[in-house]
Amino acid sequence: MRLFISHVTEEADVAVALQRRLRETVPGVDPFVSSTDIGAGQAWLAEVSEAVEDAAMMIVLCSPRSVDRTWVNFEAGAGFGRQVEVVPVCHGGLRAADLPLPLSIFNVVDIAARGGVEELFASVARKARLAVVDQADWPAIHADLAPAAPARTGEIGLVLAHGQDKWDDEGSGTSVFDLPRSLPTELTGPWRFRPIARGEDLYRPDLHELSGLIVGAPWQRRMSGREIDALVEWVEAGGRMLLLGFELGDRHHGGNLNDLAQRFGFFFATDIVGPPGDAVGKPYGEPVRFDPSVATAHDLTEGLGPIILTNCQTVRVEPGGKAWLIVGDNDVCVPKPSTVRYRRGGLSQPREKTVDCRAGGPVPVGAEAPAGLTGRGAVHALGTWQLLGRTGEAADGDANRLLLERLLDWLAGGSP
C-alpha cells in the first residue's frame, strides 16, 4: 500500500523517522516522504501529485508550526479530493482538540496521547490489510517521533515578532530590545542574544536551545494563540522567561501580553505608577523610585538600593508568587472615567490625560510567578521595559545596573 506523509520542511526528521518505523513495523507499506523520495532535478510538483494520486492513505503531520501552512492544507485537500483517507497526526505540542478546520473534520490521532502511536500504526495496518510485527519496540518508536529537546546553551532570546522593537521610536538605542547594542558600558557579562523576528520561529525546535526569553508587551500587534501555547510549552520544558510591560498596558497599546501572562498567574493592570503626591496629568516619563527593602526578600534585589523606573504599570500575581518590587509610597494612577474613550476595543485619552491617583501599597510592579504554573521553568514579570537610561547607561546608578545584570544572569541559566 502506498502511503503519503505530508509535512513541513522543518519537520522532515519526524517524517523520515515515521517512514522508517512504518516500514519496519508494518512490512508491506510504502510510505512516500518528499524530503527523501524526490531526487535533485526532478519535477517536484509532478512527483508529489503522482504520489498523492497513488496513495491509499495520507498522514498529515500537524504541529503548532505546520497547521497554518498553505502547502500542508493544500496536500490534505488534494488527498481528500481524490478520496484518499486523510489522517491528521498531532505532535510537537499540538493537541487534537486544538486542530483547526478543515483538518479537524478527519479522524485525528494524537501521538502524545497514551496509545496514540500504536493507534496510528494499527490504522495503517488495517487499511493495508497487513499485520503489525510482534514485539514492536513502542518506546523507541515514541522517542523517534518525539525527538528530545536540544540542550540549552545559555543564549537569551529577544522576542521581537510583535512590534517590540518599535517601542523606542526615538531610536535612542537604550531599549532592552536592542540588546546587546544597548548594554550599559559597565556591564561585562558574557551574555549572548538571539533576536526572534518572526512568530513562526517560536515553533522551531531550536527555540529550546535558548535558556532565557525576554518577551515585552506587543506594540499594536497581537500574539496568536498558537504562539502563546508555544511560549508556555517552552517555559514548562525548563525555560526562563522575563515578561516586560509598559504603562496602561494592552488596552491602550493594542497588544495582548496578558493573554500570555495570565497563563503564569500574572495580570498587567491598566495603570501607570507615578511619584508620591498629586499628579497634574499622566506621569509619562517621570522617574519613580522603588525601595526593594519593603517588598518580599529575593535574590534579584538582595542588598540593592532604590531602583528607578519610568512608565511602569502594576503587575498582579496570584497566590504563591513572590512580589520582589512593590509600589510602596508611590501613587498608582489610572485614567479618569470621564476622560477615557474606547475605540474598536482600545483605550485612548484626550490630550489633557487627566488621571486619578490612589495611594500605593503592597501592589507589585515586579514579581516571580507561582512555581506551580511554570512546570520545569520559571517566569518573572516587570511593569516596564525601560530598565536603561536615555544614554545607554543603567538608569540612575548601581541598583538598576545590578538588577539588569542579575536578570540577565538568571535568563542565561545561572543564579542571580
What report would you give on this structure?
- With 416 residues, the chain is α/β, with parallel strands linked by helices.
- The protein starts with a strand and ends in a 5-residue tail after the last helix.
- It has helices at 12-25, 34-37, 44-54, 70-81, 116-128, 138-145, 225-236, 249-253, 257-261, 398-411, and strands at residues 2-6, 30-32, 57-62, 85-90, 109-110, 156-159, 193-196, 212-216, 240-244, 266-268, 272-274, 288-290, 307-309, 315-317, 322-326, 331-335, 341-343, 346-348, 355-359, 364-368, 378-382.
- The strands form 6 sheets. The protein has a 7-stranded mixed beta sheet with strand order 7-6-8-9-21-20-15, with helices on one face.
- The chain is elongated, with a radius of gyration of 26 Å.
- Strand 3 (57-62), helix 4 and strand 4 form a beta-alpha-beta unit.
- It is 24% helix and 21% strand.
- The longest helix has 14 residues, at 12-25.
